[in-house]
Design goal:
Chains A, B: GO terms for molecular function: ATP binding; proline-tRNA ligase activity. The structure is a homodimer. Chain A has 14 helices and 27 strands. By secondary structure, the first copy, chain A, is α+β, with helices and mostly antiparallel strands. The first copy, chain A, folds into three domains: about 1-95 and about 105-285, BirA Bifunctional Protein, domain 2 (2-Layer Sandwich), CATH 3.30.930.10; about 300-395, Anticodon-binding domain (Rossmann fold), CATH 3.40.50; about 415-485, C-terminal domain of ProRS (Translation Initiation Factor IF3, 2-Layer Sandwich). In chain A, about 50% of the residues are buried.
Amino acid sequence: MAQKITSQEKDYSQWYLDVVREAKLAEHSPVRGSMVIRPNGMALWENMREALDQMFKDTGHENAYFPLFIPKSFLSKEAQHVEGFAKECAVVTHSRLKSVDGGVEVDPESKLEEELIVRPTSETIIWDTYRGWIQSYRDLPILVNQWANVVRWEMRTRLFLRTMEFLWQEGHTAHATKEEAEAETRQMLDVYETFAEEFMAMPVIKGVKTASERFAGAVETYCIEALMQDGKALQAGTSHFLGQNFAKAFDVKFQDKDGEHKLVWATSWGVSTRLIGGLIMTHSDDQGLVLPPKLAPTQVVIVPIYRSDEQREAVLEYADSIYDELKELGVRIKVDDRDNQNPGYKFAEHEAAGIPLRIAVGPRDLENNNVELARRDTKEKNIESREGLSERIQKLLADIQDELFTKAKERREEMTSHVDSYDEFRKVIEDKGGFVWAHWDGTAETEEKIKEDTKATIRLIPLEDGEEGKCMVTGKPSKQKVLFARSY
Amino acid sequence: MAQKITSQEKDYSQWYLDVVREAKLAEHSPVRGSMVIRPNGMALWENMREALDQMFKDTGHENAYFPLFIPKSFLSKEAQHVEGFAKECAVVTHSRLKSVDGGVEVDPESKLEEELIVRPTSETIIWDTYRGWIQSYRDLPILVNQWANVVRWEMRTRLFLRTMEFLWQEGHTAHATKEEAEAETRQMLDVYETFAEEFMAMPVIKGVKTASERFAGAVETYCIEALMQDGKALQAGTSHFLGQNFAKAFDVKFQDKDGEHKLVWATSWGVSTRLIGGLIMTHSDDQGLVLPPKLAPTQVVIVPIYRSDEQREAVLEYADSIYDELKELGVRIKVDDRDNQNPGYKFAEHEAAGIPLRIAVGPRDLENNNVELARRDTKEKNIESREGLSERIQKLLADIQDELFTKAKERREEMTSHVDSYDEFRKVIEDKGGFVWAHWDGTAETEEKIKEDTKATIRLIPLEDGEEGKCMVTGKPSKQKVLFARSY
């Protein structure tokens, strides 16, 4: 099975697709740009969702659900917003099919008075709803999140990273003051950072986007950026300070303590199934997926090895005793007791699927009160005593989690450069890739020129002030270095 | 707040809408037929989803996610299926908007080659996918479930009970043999029965639908039916034995152990946010929602009562000690310490929201080491000693769960009639409503006549054989009584 995966070195792009396939995470569907998320991919997304959802709830948010369809007129109410999304909208225009010879056709008589847009994001429908929820300062803040599917018509898609339909969460909050909304925006950015680093073991840098990379309708877009193994950046999450833009567009005001009617302040923030792409390209290798234990749907798999029915019974009993012990400790474990596949096949399958630890037990292990323990990330294999095994495994899972993060962080450091001249910049971007810190004069023109010359974009402006300097392109003053990279 | 709810006696329909509003479960959205599920409604759905999901996983199912859009040509592949859904399809025909003076319009140049249907159900896209997953008997069974939104264009909608878009789960399984698929269909019907009765405290009757009420594309549709407080039936869940219909339509075959290529057997089964409507109309009253403790997002709310800051501190400390103790025991509890609302307002709000138990604590309770404990379902209020309170509350929650079920079951029995003549049938349906058992000759003509005469439909044919008799309409032989009711 492992041979089916193209090596990273040979073709990183193909390697990625091979891993997605061999780990049975997802596949293309007949609807161009849409994907089927297979059970392994969905179990992973469910674990990510559960961890994030708990963090959202711990910070006072509740879930709600808003309609899939947005009236066309809503989208146009916020000028920048509609400009940003108009070109990628799936539009519902009819409500019926009718039978014709040999099939069905759209019934022209079912044409809608107003077309409906399949939500590309939900600011408009949500702010239209909030108008009814908000009268007084007592109704604020509103801290709501939604787990949903959204559709953005994309021509060039890539499983998880860019698909026409994807799953995500979108938080939409309403506040009485600018300060509160800004604090919320930053708080959720921190939540994303914590999730990325502590659960995904994927180091990220926090920052703010330039005007040209801002979310359509936002005043500021904050982001976390991660660096993939091939030296390209991935925007892993965004948190938008929306100012009063949507409150203005949808006329959402509240009566403040002072009796005055004021426009409400807004934020929105989201991460999506795209994170699964980031996870793959942070840890995986030529044998397939590598998963951090905190998110792995199965953390430990036990493969029993036997040649006779008698051996089978004894070995399975041994395996079950290990299973019971670890299950009791809260470890996500399974025994792969399929009879129609041999151990070699199972090993390759579990390797491709990224299960962090594999325990193999055969008749000899039983005799010696041992097991063979294999680590997916480092490929170490050891004979371990059955005695105290569960506690060692618990510790090992925590160690793997930490080591994956450390390794990813070291790789990122190795692939991060600081440059002062544009020549150097172009050379580094072309030859080495990775993150490149450089001075920029703050203009959209220079940003655009760099992008055209090198395909590198400004991933973020750091949140903390840095050392002043001169723009590498124009020589004009620069307040601090900003982070460049080619990106997904 | 409670006055805002119309009494059940006065207008059951309006009462239902008032409860949904006052419990803050959901509201209509500007897109006709779509609803916004508010945080209280979503928290309830999440609890239902979690319990069901665990039951699905315990019976060997995994979750996956399939595309929202289905190519029009897929729908037409199974003749009955397309006939059933053609008249309620949201159709996507374009992929872009373009700016025009004063707004945006659909860009005619973005017209799709093939229209896409927003899934009304996913059999077709899933069976198209299964063709790629199934080659050999080793690949079977496939036991997959999906949590998703679906759209069926409905003209007459009602929050939760019938909405254009709704949330649901749809299980889709593939099997090597007819027997196995039939067993799966029945197993999932049992899962639904268990969920309805043990979690929702809503008694249901299991049975099979008549041909005219069958799911479009199914060989048999099994169902659970519940009886609402107003004497109308609610179909609460369905489990379909699909035979080989979808395997034929999508050419899904497997090589069996005997080397032969055979068509795969299928089932599908689903429940939706409609269950929330059923929950409301099973237990709630003129004060608002009544929730069974197993599903209540908040099981116990503590309302602190005080007149001074000094009292406030002491009372809150007392409240927190109760909170900590119950939280530790796994009870879903919260302290309502909002300063901007008075206790009376809070009581009415918690009552409307259906929180099973309310604890009020004031300075005098503190002195006497007491609390005031109020039960939502029976409206009993008692002074209870702080000593051993947590254990009594745990037991009380379990008792409430049981009593709600018993009460609902007794109500159903009172509203169930057995009739032998059509005159009696018409009188009972008209005057009393409820479930009516009667003999039927098994023909679609008689079924249709009864429906036209009385608006009552056959809810189900029972799974066990009953006593033979004669059709109440035609006098022809009948194998057993079947269950009639007017329904939602």
